[in-house]
Amino acid sequence: MIITVIIAVAFIGLAILLYPGRGRTQDRGGQGLKRRFGPEYARVVADHDGDTRAAEQELGKRVKEHGLLTQQPLTPAARERYMTRWAAVQEQFVESPQQGVIEADALLARLAKDRGFPGGEQFEDQIAALSVHHAHYVQGYRSMHTAAHEPSGTEDMREMMVDARSLFEALVTEQPVSPSRPSAPTAEAKRHGQ
């Protein structure tokens, strides 16, 4: 009987030592955040001078604050209005790039608010919430927002408009995303290499 208990304890001890997930509980959180936030993860780590712990704390805070946010669907009429307005903004960009960027920035802020994200008057809060649900698209919006307030060259602004369009398309066409899974690029975005 004692030998059976010793063998069982030894077997359990060996199983614990050999279990592949042992010691990785800390790492799983970081890997999950890397997958969820994609390029946004790298940007936040860079903002924290390579301090992954601080970056992961910030991203974890975002998930805690905005992860359960329920994205509101757009009515077909609202969707059509936004698409029409975006087309008009792109046309305006040809005539006046700076004004086009300013209007595209305001349009994205309104669209995000209509979808249930924090209002655009608190840009950092809005971008934090958007990054939880649309991490692969927020950098274009962030760059365009900066250009709307600090003019850039026309080619730079054009690239920002193209990048921000990915977020626009995700917000205007996507149905609400389950908070338990991150947004992924749409099939249309993948076909166009975005």
How far is it from the N-terminal to the C-terminal residue, by CA? 65 Å
The helix count comes to 10
Mean pLDDT: 82
Regarding quaternary structure, what we see is single chain
- Main sheet specs: none
Order of helices and strands: HHHHHHHHHH
- Strand fraction equals under 5%
Backbone CA Rg: 22 Å
Helix and strand arrangement:
Blueprint: H1 2-18, H2 25-37, H3 39-47, H4 52-66, H5 76-95, H6 97-114, H7 123-134, H8 138-149, H9 154-173, H10 187-191
Task: Tell me about this structure.
By secondary structure, this protein is mainly alpha-helical. It is built from ten helices and no strands. The chain has helices at residues 2-18, 25-37, 39-47, 52-66, 76-95, 97-114, 123-134, 138-149, 154-173, 187-191. Helix 5 packs antiparallel against helix 6 (97-114) and helix 5 packs antiparallel against helix 9. It is elongated, with a radius of gyration of 22 Å.
